[in-house]
Amino acid sequence: MELLLLGIVGLLVTGAVVGNSVAKSRAYVVARKRLRSAPQELVDGALVTLIGKVRAIETHPAPISGRPCVAVHVKAFMGPTWLTRFAMTRFILETPHGEIFVERVDEAGLALPAQRIRPRYEISHRYLVPLGRTLAEASCATFEETIVEVGATVAVYGVVATELAPPSGEVGFRDSNRVVCLRGTPTVQLTIGRV
User: Fold this and answer.
1) Rounded to an integer, what distance in angstroms lies between the CA atom of residue 94 and that of residue 92?
2) What are phi and psi of 163, to 5 degrees?
3) pTM for the predicted model, two decimal places
4) CA-to-CA distance for 137 and 148, rounded, in angstroms?
């Protein structure tokens, strides 16, 4: 009986680990394919992939590692279950086309390497308990954290949008400063990845 119970628990844990790695690799492959598929021409409303260096408008610390970033995806593993969270701020992508504003979205595809972290109990507790997890789950949790750091060279896939910049000083009626933005839409997921 004990051997049967031990076997069932082993199968559940193995299934959770294998299921997670399959889901992760599929999402990663889809995001990489998106980054390679779009052109680099800036036409309003077009799908593009632009490569450039990340410059922050504002940053926030990654919840587990504490490193400053403009986007973070955290996955917490607590035995056979896991929970994910994503956060992002608006940032600037410095490209050969000039400065491109990357708009904040609620969920983006990150095709970047994840760092596996087993943090101190206090950090795990501070992150998981407010999300409704128990102290026991917080004590045994491991995390994967994927971040977009300031200064990194990345490729960004999204929809081009041009808009008027707010006036700075005196301008004439023909002096309109246009700002180019990349954003996600309900049908196009903003994707950020390695070059």
Assistant:
1) 6
2) -145, 160
3) 0.72
4) 27
Take residue 146 and report the two structure tokens written for it. 């994927």
Helix (H) or strand (E) run with residue 139 in it: helix 135-140
Sheet holding 81-88, edge to edge: 81-88, 71-78, 142-148, 115-117
Tens of pLDDT, residue by residue, the chain (195 residues): 555 444 454 544 445 444 444 445 566 666 656 556 655 667 788 888 899 999 999 998 999 999 999 999 999 998 888 888 999 999 999 998 889 999 999 888 888 888 998 888 888 888 888 888 888 888 888 999 999 999 999 999 999 988 776 655 555 555 557 788 899 888 888 999 987
Both tokens of 96, joined, read 């050969």
R_g of the chain, CA atoms, integer Å: 21
